[in-house]
Design brief:
Length: 145
């Protein structure tokens, strides 16, 4: 199993909580990983020989949270990662018009590089998924098995 890099984007802390729960599970399972903190994102390019997992909520009108947006733009403007393997978990709410718009933007970004999704994006819906950390951990387990 490749090392897993976890990146989160959050407004009110839910995606961060989910990410920290996933990281705890990886620690318990003995899987090598790094939780890239928000203040470490500037200039950080995901290594292509490691797996990247982005866990990101949506805000505004299908927008990215402010703190992860500069990193998204950096990748969009200057990265080319055709050999990257990645997985995406979106936290959204289907009562909003652009459901999980932020994680869809990541899907489009990575697809544009020709990078490979390890599994279809998990799009969580706050109207249905009352324990997103549980769903995220199940999704992560299915990657590991
Ligand atoms: C002001 C606001 C705007 C939101 N806009 C969207 C949106 O456009 N699309 C969506 O799917 N969810 C939207 N949501 C729902 C959040 O993404 C969802 O509640 C998520 O779990 C919040 O996670 P966070 O605390 O990590 O930011 C919005 C929530 C708020 C409070």
């Amino acid at each position: 199993m490749k090392k897993i890099n976890l990146v989160y984007g959050t407004v009110n802390g839910e995606a961060e909580f989910v990410t920290r729960e996933v990281a705890e599970q990886l620690s318990a399972d003995g899987v090598e990983h790094r939780l890239v903190e928000q203040d470490e994102l500037a200039g950080w390019v995901p290594p292509q020989d490691e797996l990247l997992v982005v866990i990101c909520s949506s805000t505004g009108y299908g927008d990215l949270p402010d703190e992860i947006y500069p990193w998204f733009l950096e990748l969009q403007e200057s990265a080319y990662l055709p050999d990257l393997e990645y997985g995406l978990i979106g936290l959204g709410d289907s009562s909003y018009e652009i459901f999980n718009g932020a994680i869809v933007q990541f899907e489009e970004l990575f697809a544009g590089f020709g990078a490979s999704a390890i599994k279809p994006t998990l799009k969580l819906d706050a109207s249905i998924n009352y324990a997103p950390e549980k769903d995220a951990k199940e999704w992560m387990s299915s990657i590991l098995s």
